Amino acid sequence: MLVVDDEPGMRQMLEGTFKDRGFHVTTASNGSKAIEVIQEQPFDVIITDLKMPERDGLAVLRSARASAYDSPVIMITAYGTIDTAVEAMRLGARDFIAKPFKLAEIELKVDKIMGERPAREYEQRTPLTQPTERQIVGYSKETKQLLKMIQKIGPSRSSVLITGPSGTGKELVARAIHDSSPRKDRPFVALNCAALAPGVLESELFGHEKGAFTGAVSQRQGRFERAHTGTLFLDEVGEIDGNIQTKLLRVLQEGEFERVGGNQTVRVDTRIIAATNRDLREAISLGAFREDFYYRLNVFSLRVEPLRARPDDIPALIDHFLKKFSFELAKEVNAVEDDVMSFFMRYPWPGNVRELENVLERAVVLAEGNTITRDVIPPDMFFLQEELDPDPEALPESASLVERTDHMESEMIAAALNRFHWNKTKAADHLGLKRTTLQYKIKKYGLK
Asked: Does residue 28 sit within a domain?
């Protein structure tokens, strides 16, 4: 909700009233500030005074109607003439109320507007824009802690080792560290070390001189030189050959190396961020990884948890990927059915975020409306979910009708709460419940 009024007392009263009812309330002290805010974000409802300094309520109304979100507006005025009311309604105001008024009156008007609006209208009105590819998405405590650590270690030039299963977004974390550092405007160079044979990898890292080997017809810079003053990201560092590990250790310690086939020392100022899905301590014990190289890499260590360990991130990731693929495919698919959301929250995601992304790309391609339904989800996922992670709360065949009904209701409520990031007002509207009823059922089913 946006509340616009030049009287501080009125703003505070309306803000407090609707915050207590579960709204996220933004306030503006005049029309000019309100118009700036309206252009930046959508609102489910706007309450604005008519007479204000600088820009009046009618200007706010025009701005709301002209924005991509077309937020509904309730006009308030102490100058409640018929002409003013007619003008406001003609311009598209949803309702009109004159001062002085009782809080119950404006609450009823807001309830009427919220009741008229479909639960997914917000997403449908969101303009189709391309989401950034370098955004770390999620609300879980694990993701919040990861973002906090990125901000802390970003400004240093020390090496960072990122660990975690494949498909969790380790390169995304590396880019976030680079973007949080003073090097953010300098090169970020990535190299998948597992994809290259040792001889090719050495040339890729350090470059080569003309004639160093067959086909080396000219001098070539390696990734270290290209990343000078910036960041070099070494993905799958656990797959690097032992001889190359020795040369990398020298670069980490001395900041210098020789190109392949050369004897001239090249000095670089390159920050190293490495990533692996292997247990490097175990590799050390097996003699497959140098211990001194490990400790030089592991000045800072970050772990990206598998998706099944941070299910609170799933709704935000779904929103992100739906926007991404809707933009790429020129479609407007902006929601998933509650039973699909419930399934996604229970599924073990062996392929992690990469698997979720692929599933949603397929779903957006196949979707016939603006909602992802069960029939566009790969059927083998349902069998895999049962094999890898059977539902511990699944009801026995002997369960009564009441038990089955409660179980289904609990899953639907949990899915709606996750979808709206535990905004109980929006979840209640989506489910067709009063907010107080939803709160009772949350307590009844022990949802957290």
From this structure: yes
Q: What is the mean pLDDT of residues 83-103?
A: 77
Is the dihedral angle over the CA atoms 371, 376, 379, 381 positive or is it negative? negative
Of 6-10, 83-87, 176-180, minimum mean pLDDT range: 83-87
Q: Is residue 126 part of a domain?
A: no
How far apart are alpha carbons 448 and 442 in whole angstroms? Answer: 8
Judge whether 173 and 224 are in contact, CB under 8 Å.
Answer: no
Give the tokens for residue 299: 């000045």
**How far, in Å, are 20, 33, 299 from residue 109 at the CA level?**
17, 24, 58
Boundary (domain end) residue, out of 60, 82, 117: 117
Q: Is the pLDDT of residue 389 over 60?
A: no
pLDDT at 119 over 50: no
Residue 173 inside a domain? The answer is yes
The whole-angstrom separation of Cα 124 and Cα 121 is: 5
Per-residue pLDDT at 404: 67
**285 shares its domain with 346:** no
Stretch 31-41: mean pLDDT, rounded? 86
Mean pLDDT of the chain: 85
State whether 302 and 330 are in the same domain: no
- DSSP states along 327-388: HHHT----EE-HHHHHHHHHS--TTHHHHHHHHHHHHHHH-SSSEE-GGGS-HHHHHHHHHH
8-state DSSP, 158 = -
Q: Tell me whether residue 448 is exposed, middle or buried, using C-beta atoms within 10 angstroms of its C-beta: 0 to 12, 13 to 18, 19 or more.
A: exposed
Would you say 334 and 120 are in contact if contact means Cβ atoms under 8 Å apart? Answer: yes
| Domain around 298 | 141-307
User: Mean pLDDT throughout 60-82?
Assistant: 77
Residue 210 φ/ψ region, left for φ over 0, alpha for ψ in the -120 to 50 degree band, beta for the rest = beta
Q: How many structural domains does the chain have?
A: 3
CA distance 161 to 148: 16
Strands ordered across the beta sheet of 2-4: 26-28, 2-4, 46-49, 73-77, 95-98
Domain-terminating residue out of 69, 84, 117: 117
What pTM value is reported for the model?
A: 0.60
pLDDT tens profile 201-240: 999 999 988 887 877 778 888 999 999 999 999 999 999 9
Residues 6+ apart with CB under 8 A from 407: 393, 395, 399
Kindly calculate the radius of gyration of the chain based on its CA atoms and give it in whole angstroms.
Answer: 28
The three-point CA angle 35-39-42 to 5° equals 110
Q: Which candidate, 51, 50, 8, places its Cα nearest to that of 27?
A: 8
Q: pLDDT exceeding 90 applies to what percent of the chain?
A: 40
